[in-house]
Amino acid sequence: MSSLKVTVCAGAALALVLTPVAPAAYAADGGGVSVTPSSPAPGGDVTLRVSDCAATTALATSAAFDSEVRLSPAGEDGELVGSGRIRSTTDADAHAVWVTCGDAVRRGTVTVAERRRPATPTAPASPVAPVDAGGGGAVRLAAPDTRDEARPAPPGTAHTVTGLVLAAIAAVAVALRGVRSRNGGAG
Question: For residue 179, is pLDDT > 70?
């Protein structure tokens, strides 16, 4: 990795570690509805929590949500929890959230943040210094390992003699074929 990439990655990791967790947004009217994260982006996921609900389930609706969010018990304390998604076309603004809890309806808000624009890549789309690849079967021969068993033995006398005999047989076969074709294919 280049030093620029390492620096950027280290900076991003440090920013992620040092960024505080987003606090829950409680309804202004004290309805006990909380939304986490407090400022989700369009298309982001949210978690809704309602405490002190007389019913065992609740239903949350909002114009900002993709669909209704069903809340169910999350523990012994009677808190109801559910997850939903912010509509990707939602405008950045505060949107009302209604939670039907038994016969009561509680109101809260979710503040949708501005749509995040994708970061412009700083690295070129194609490799600047591509890796020298290839070699296929020759990779064994180019290995930096200098042990005796790493490299095969070069051709010896037996290989040379075998190659010369095969070349002589091929030359005789070509010569005979040429003689036959000049004589009209007799034979």
Answer: yes
Cα 47 from Cα 71, distance rounded (Å): 10
**CA torsion, ordered 126, 132, 133, 134, to nearest 10 deg:** 130
The C-alpha angle 38, 43, 46, rounded to 5 degrees, equals 35
Q: What is the pLDDT of residues 15-58, one digit of tens each?
A: 444 444 443 333 334 467 888 988 899 999 999 998 888 788 89
C-alpha dist (Å) from residue 56 to 77, 78, 177: 12, 8, 97
Q: Do residues 99 and 58 lie in contact, with contact meaning Cβ atoms separated by under 8 Å?
A: yes
What is the C-alpha to C-alpha distance for residues 2 and 73, in angstroms, rounded to an integer? 50
Q: What SS3 state is found at 25?
A: strand
Rounded CA separation 173/115 (Å)? 79
| C-alpha pair distances (Å), 132 with each of 124, 135, 139, 150 | 19, 9, 12, 22
The DSSP result for 66-134, as a single string, is: SS-EEEEE-STT--EEEEEEB-TT--SSEEEEEEEETTEEEEEEEEPPPPPPPPPP-S-SS-SS-----
pTM attached to this predicted model: 0.46
